[in-house]
Amino acid sequence: MIGVAAAAVAMSHGQWAAAAPAADARTLPAVGTTWCYSVGEGHVTPMTLRAVHGGVASYDVGPAAAPMKLDEDVSTYTTPNPARHGERRLLVFPLKPGKQWEDRFDETVTASIGRGWAWHYRYRAVASSEVIGTEKRQVGAGTYDTFVIVRTTSWTKSDPGTTDATLRDMGMHCDDPACKVSGYSKEVSWYAPSIGRVVLRANVQSGFEPSMTDASADETLKNAGSLVTELVGYGDDATCKAAQPPRFATVPSAPGFGFALWPNNAWEFHMARDIARE
């Protein structure tokens, strides 16, 4: 029987520390498997695996009537981007506590405003990642043995533009001739090797570096500025009708420190609010 002292050591922020799960490489389940992700009550998005070929996994994301097609590099958990210079790696296998890596990359990314109006900007980043430990983590979809990965990023976004006539008609403009915004992001991910995907992720950003580095993983989950994505269903239910209520998922209730508070039609505002790039 585990002693009281040992139990206290095993406990970390209310979660039992897990024995290290096996993660020499990433293994995906069968084609047709669906992961159901939520960013808050009433917001559930299906993600269904459609194919795996040449180290790339292809998914349908969203409603079956009009899914978005998404490709993902299996080994790095990253969407391929032909416009990327350098490396962007959210995972580097084999995973083990204490493992660290750094990415430097420069790419053009696409985004949307409101009703799917398309625009783009240049994203330059330096990111440092570390596997800080393992944890048995309970989410809406169940309880999983996970690796906890913290990723901090220093970034600059610039050169926004659009080919969407509606956005041009809205008077989108740059507040400053440089037309760029810089900041820091911190992302904490709980990756479950048994199902090949992250089951919980908290992403928060700020204009000030100290606020990115001081908080613990659980404090990042509770931060009012965090976008928290949670697995609430998993299996063969492509509709996600059987998804469970989220325990943590939420959209930010407060903007990141150092950025504009109120929505406007400046490109700088929208670049700063496009927070989920990491």
UniProtKB/TrEMBL annotation:
| Keywords per UniProt | Signal
Record flagged with keyword Signal: yes
Query: Which residue positions does the secretion signal occupy?
Result: 1-19
Protein name (database record):
Secreted protein
Organism source for this protein? Burkholderia theae
